[in-house]
Amino acid sequence: MPARALALLLVAVGLYAAGDAWWHMPLGTPGMPGPGMLPLALGLLVAFLAAASLLQRAPAPAVGFVRRRATAVAALLVLYPLLLPRAGFALTTALVLFLLGRAIAPVPPARLALFALASAAGAVILFRRLLAVPLPSGPWGF
Amino acid sequence: MLEGLAQGFAVALQWHNILYAFAGVFLGTVLGVLPGIGPVAGIALLLPATFSLDPASAIIMMAGIFYGTMYGGSTTSILINVPGEAASVITCIDGHQMARQGRAGPALGIAAIGSFIAGTLGVVGLMVAAPALTRLALRFGPAEYFALIVFGLVVLAFLSSGSTLRALAMGGLGLLLGTVGLEPMSGFARYTFGRPELFDGVGFIPVAMGLFGLGEILDKAARTEQVEIVRGRLGRLLPSRADWARSWKAVLRGSGIGFFCGLLPGPNAVIASIVSYGLEKRLSRRPEEFGHGAIEGVAGPESANNAAAAGALVPLLSLGIPSSPPTAVLLAGFLVHGLTPGPLLMQQRPDVFWGVLASMYLGNAMLLVLNLPLIGLFVRILRVADVYLLPLIVLFTMVGAYSVGNSLVDVWVMVLFGLFGFACRRAGFDPAPVVLALVLGPMLETALGQALILSDGSPMIFLTHPISAALLGLAALLIVWNLAGGARLRQRLGKLASVPEGGTG
Q1: Is the same domain home to A32 and A77?
Q2: Pair A119, A76 in one domain
Q3: Does a structural domain hold residue A26?
Q4: A19 in contact with B at a CB cutoff of 8 Å?
Q5: Is A95 within 8 Å of chain B by CB?
Q6: pLDDT tops 90 at residue A142
Q7: Contact yes or no for B339/B55 (Cβ under 8 A)
Q8: Does residue A50 share a domain with residue A98?
Q9: Cβ-count burial of B116 within 10 angstroms (0-12 exposed, 13-18 middle, 19+ buried)?
Q10: Model confidence over B60-97: pLDDT tens digits?
Q11: What is the reported pLDDT for B503?
Q12: Is residue A33 part of a domain?
């Protein structure tokens, strides 16, 4: 099932890319290819290959998979860039690291909080102070 | 050549370059030890750390990470039966059996020593082959470059894990992603949705970090199985006289096989280790011991995958074309530092070309000195629980992606491709072709455009140039062969390669 869903997604992406190239990009001539020629060809190729793969037998679904844990980790990965410009690097890092730990394994919250705070503090010193990466600061200045 | 090498050692022996080579091989080994984090994710994760370095030092460090991961990958294969990276899959078979029999020490020792010998011999091969191929590459025109890129992508798809059709579709997707941004000739904006951040295209580094870093973390976090680390003493690390007698020929054969496989496009290190294992089993007087702890089954493949790492640098340094995903990330590293690998690199930046080669001799020696005494430390790293390790890797990937352009757009691109990479793993689509095709896409478009302009739009240019015609003919043959039943061989290779960094070699 996931193989079919992904193949259909690739068909859609390919058709969209080909359609956009056909309608909105100059195609040029064979002697002077325009910016739309290669995207058109590639879009059609991706759609065709993905559609052809739908005719193949789908691989067996992966076993040993905890959907709830995967969803939680995925949501936290999205939360990080959402929160980063609003709450700042230190707070976002501490919060997301704590929640990631909670999502991955049942560890005592106090130990996890200590790990998250220490990691965030270490990251601020390493990346912001020593390596001078201009990471976003939150409303509280850290 | 000797003059060039002397110049290279003058660069590599500068104290700061020794330090960066050491940092590269050490970090590479640590990343190789971590299951799932192979050379692609390793170089991509650490690339931002090289931004402030001068180009020669940065490439020396990145090359160190590349071959360092090959060393580290064997540790997990032997101790927990999980390959640290794809090319160490085959080491699990006999390496883990040796560990279960209380011979983890000699298994780790022969892997490190074999890797050192093969890595050093591989650099000698690289030193001879790269300048020779560079002279040939100077005769390459756009038609030949176009054909070479198409050939490389078809071979990669053919040898990828899973279905060739899916791998080709993923390669097409990578090429399509490479068209995002301003078209170089006309400046026309393609698929940018009016966002200026996309005018320069989709960042290769965030895509690679997402597909291979975050994608793997998600997969690891979602898995239920627990791995069992072989406990107890490792035993003596140095192989016994009897072990040596059984292994030295395997090491030499693995070095040769690895180097030549490394020259080929695709997951070359994976193939090298598989071919080496098959050959050792066939040549052995005790083939029945293979699968039950035969030391040749560790010595040969581990030597082969390290020699392949050196071989894989030949097409990159001489033609400017990466033949596998790890070398594609290395190419991105060259470009970030304003260097263009290829036939002109040796003439224009001999300090970088020869400096990297010379540093690889030092790096391989450092790895041997580093690996034997530090194996205990690497085992302890393996025992750090995922609950702490995975969040820390997430933190490094987030900061790494952000620091590429000090922009949140790169972080979003990485997260998006992390989710996509996870979906690919679950659905049986190999993400490796996306990464290679994304790097090769702009080169392919430029070569195609120039060739068609030269020929007044006639596609016959690709068939009238002998090298181009031969490469395209070979690519077509591979596709026909696959459709006609060659799938069986590919599936056998693919099944063996379908591990954490499926087919990344």
Answers
A1: no
A2: yes
A3: yes
A4: no
A5: no
A6: no
A7: yes
A8: no
A9: buried
A10: 998 898 888 877 778 877 877 766 666 777 888 888 88
A11: 38
A12: yes
- Count the domains in chain A: 2
pLDDT band at A136 (very low <50, low <70, confident <90, very high): confident
Chain-chain contact of A70 with B218 (C-beta, under 8 angstroms): yes
Partners of B252 in beta bridges: none
Report d(CA B132, CA B262) in Å as an integer: 16
Task: Give the 3-state secondary structure of B378-435.
Answer: HHHHHCCCHHHHHHHHHHHHHHHHHHHHCCHHHHHHHHHHHHHHHHHHHHCCCCHHHH
CB B51 within 8 A of CB B468: no
User: Quick check: is A59 in a domain?
Assistant: no
| Strand A32-33 versus strand A28-29 pairing type | antiparallel
User: Residues 6 or more apart from B470 whose CB is under 8 A from it?
Assistant: none
pLDDT in tens, A82-135: 999 999 999 999 999 999 999 888 888 999 999 999 999 999 988 888 777 788
Same domain for A114 and A88, yes or no, is yes
CB contact under 8 A, B169 and A46: yes
Determine the distance from the C-alpha atom of residue A73 to the mean position of all C-alpha atoms in its chain, rounded to a whole number: 12
**A64: buried, middle or exposed (CB in 10 Å: 19+, 13-18, 0-12)?**
exposed
Domain that holds residue A87: 67-130
Give the whole-angstrom CA distance, residue B338 versus residue B54. Answer: 10
Closest partner CB to B445 (pick from A38, A70, A77): A38
User: How many angstroms away from the CA of B162 is the closest CA of chain A?
Assistant: 8
Give the up-direction half-sphere exposure of residue B6: CA atoms within 13 A in the CB hemisphere.
3
Domain co-membership, A72 together with A42: no
Mutation target for A interface from B46, B51, B175, B179: give the one with most A CBs within 10 A.
B179
- The three-class DSSP label of residue B190 is strand
Tell me how crowded residue B477 is: count the other CB atoms within 10 A of its CB.
12
Question: Of how many residues is chain A composed?
Answer: 142
Residue A49 lies inside a defined structural domain of this protein: yes
Residue B93, H or E segment:
helix B91-100
Q: Which of A42, A69, A136 is the closest to B221 by Cβ?
A: A69
**ipTM of the assembly?**
0.92
Residues ≥6 apart with Cβ < 8 Å to B377: none
Which chain A residue shows the shortest CA-CA distance from B426? A62
Judgement on whether residues A8 and A50 belong to the same structural domain of the protein:
yes
- Same domain for A120 and A80? yes
Same domain, A71 and A20: no
* Angular region, A56: left φ>0, alpha ψ -120 to 50, beta rest: beta
- The span from the CA of B23 to the CA of B29, in Å, is 10
Band the pLDDT of B490: cuts 50, 70, 90.
low
